[in-house]
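dumping this here before i forget
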Amino acid sequence: MRFQRITQTVTLILFLGLFLLAASPFPDGLGVDLFLRLDPLVDLGTVVAARDFQVFLLPGFILLASAFLFGRVFCGHICPMGTTLDVLERTAKTSRKSPTKTNSREAAGDYRAWKYLCLLVILAGAAGGVSLVFVGSPLSLVTRFYALVVHPVALALLDAALALVSPLASHTRFAELAHVQVDQRVFATGAFVAAFFVAMTALAYVQPRFWCRNLCPTGALFGLCSRSPRVRRKVNDSCTGCGRCIRGCPTAAISEDPTQTDHAECIVCLRCVSVCPEAAVSFGTIRGAAAKPAAKIDLSRRRLFLAMGSGLATAGLIRTGIHQPVPKIRDRPLRDGELIRPPGALPEAAFLERCIRCGECMKACPTNTLQPIWLKAGLEGIFSPIMLPRLGPCAVGCNVCGQVCPTGAIRNLPLIEKRHAKVGTAWIARETCLVWEQDKKCLVCDEVCPYGAVAFRPVEGKMNAVPFVTGTKCTGCGWCECKCPVEGTSAIRVGIAGEIRLNRGSYVEKSREYGFVFKIKETGPGGLAPGTFDAPDSAPAEGPGRQGSPASGTGLPPGIILK
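structure:
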């Protein structure tokens, strides 16, 4: 097995291990966002768009600087996007032997300039104040793929497998399997994300690793820094010019003269070393006149200006959109009333500048309430997370979304702060409420509300007391909307009215300043309302809110629960 295959396997396992650990309950101090912070495009794009540098974004810049010494080692050995595409291409059997003349540096075509143009578009957009990192960052794309496509599909397959074996398991020593089920996940936009990766795999029929060769803007960043690396490919005099290295190079970095290499395209995969019959190829330092820089990037002035202009024009169009949250445009930007961001999310403009749409918070959310959106927040908000309370509530004892966010778009808040990060206020649609409209007895919203924000009072003309929401007690957690028994749209819904979103400072102090009182009512087991999600160190509540409870105390991994 080649050295590259070993390193790719190890790093992919590490990536997937950290990905799976991004769940509730969350191990304190665990850097599950490590790979996302290693992407220099994430770091650079976030810094430029937000006009702010944070120390936790430093790893990507350090890794980018290492390209001056070791070239594009990250692309060939560490990047989970490249490894995933390699696996998909092998599964689809797209790999084939390329003739020497069509896989040389000179014959690779003009495609490879596209990644530099994509990089310019993204950086120009960031200079205009709009983050387009999520469009091209390979770490954001691959994390989104695993979060919105692979993870839910794997859970569904695991649940189906357990359903098949559970009748047999009850008669064996593994009888516990009959009482285990998988907490299913559903996500919007998953089909679109899957289609993107299918397209990238299909493009391998045109050229191997088409994304890495021609489209990846992070690869372009590394290429700019590795045009003349300290450690590089070198060929000794025993080379016979057989062309095997040229045919086997996955990025067409070797020239028709096999002694010459485009180091900006070389991903140090070492395949040329393994296929050379004369052992003429090696990697090491080169001194003196023998050290030749990479070939010039074929970018005309017109294409450069077109790329930068496209990025700035995109930023201009987005920033003048009707949903754009820029106070300079209007005193009160137009926002969808149901655009409920996760607790601890920065103010909308800052949130969109930092959010890279990686899907990590959505995967980690124990109740599946966080979902990617399309145009609900305009073009700039595509794939960003919102809460859908009808699908699931915000768990009272969980703050995992802030802990896994790699760029600080969602603040990492202690539980007490998170519980005061009001995301909105519930309101009652009386025309569909069973009590208000049909005068039927229903107490569900009061029973499940963990903060006692719903109260029932007698009203003239009604046989049963009817519900009212006390806005100063409501955090917008959505338990009432999730559990409302009305079919279709809930009769009690959460809107953004009264939300608190801070760049810095204490949510506890700000809520007190506004006169809010968020106190968990003591009506259920563990001191919480029936159906609420208790803190990780307490037993989960029984009752209708069993959905989304963690496997805390059961010894089962996150997402696996007892029936």
